[in-house]
Amino acid sequence: MMDIVDQHDDVYASAGFHPLEDMSQGLDAAALKQWALDDRIVAVGETGLDYFYAQESAESQREHFITHLKIAAEVNKPVIIHSREARDDTLAAIAQHAGSAAGVLHCFTDTWPMAKQAIEEGFYISISGIVTFRNASELRDVVKKIPLDRLMVETDSPYLAPVPHRGKANQPAYVREVAEYIAELRGISLEQLAEATTDNFQRLFFRS
């Protein structure tokens, strides 16, 4: 991945262990911190908790998540968080261990109270193509409430392609369709949304 990043001036990476990875041998915190210190790495993660697919490993997931949060705080880089069916534990870990690291709840599909508490802890909320799905009415209500200076847009490719591409392989280029949908949902122009989310990206990942 870093070989690819090195070929482009405007492509960056994050370093972390996803909660669904096989961590039976434990987490190499020293290696993670070494990667996190690299200038080409702009965030720690994707990390977090997934009780939907792996409730049986909840305890070890929490340990690894906290390790990521602590390393992010040590190196002063944001953390990218995955949270599924783990609202309370995710928020508790953020409140206790994120420190000044802050970060983003990526591919957010949870409730407004969760988003609101994360925002109060200094986090951003990132919305994927799921917001375009017919059954995502509750998420659309959340998206309308997120302050514009705390909103991000993503694709989560190669999964979750937005309408009208649903059922096909997702790709980063489809972020435009997600942004267009969110802009219309919020009653603002695509240009206004693009400017705000770009500013948010720069502010979070480059501390500008």
The arrangement of helices and strands along the chain is: HEHEHHEHEHEHEHH
CATH class of one domain, please? Alpha Beta
Gross geometry = globular
The portion of residues assigned to helices is 40-55%
If helices are DSSP runs of H or I spanning 4 or more residues, what is the number of helices?
A: 9
Task: Give the C-alpha Rg.
Answer: 17 Å
The helix/strand class is alpha/beta
Strand order of the largest sheet: 1-2-3-4-5-6
CATH superfamily of one domain: Metal-dependent hydrolases
Number of strands: 6
Proportion of residues in extended strands: 5-15%
State the end-to-end CA separation: 25 Å
Low-confidence parts, pLDDT < 50 over ≥5 residues?
A: none
- CATH topology group of one domain: TIM Barrel
Largest beta sheet, briefly? 6 strands, parallel
Indicate the mean pLDDT: 94
Describe the protein in words.
This protein is an alpha/beta fold and 208 residues long. It has a domain at 1-101: Metal-dependent hydrolases (TIM Barrel), CATH 3.20.20. Helix content is 44%, strand content 14%. The protein has nine helices and six strands. The chain has helices spanning 2-5, 29-36, 51-54, 58-75, 87-97, 112-120, 137-145, 175-186, 190-205, and strands spanning 13-15, 41-50, 79-84, 103-105, 123-127, 151-153. Strands 1-2-3-4-5-6 form a six-stranded parallel β-sheet, sandwiched between helices. Helix 2 packs parallel to helix 4 and helix 8 crosses helix 9. It is globular and about 45 Å long. The mean pLDDT is 94.
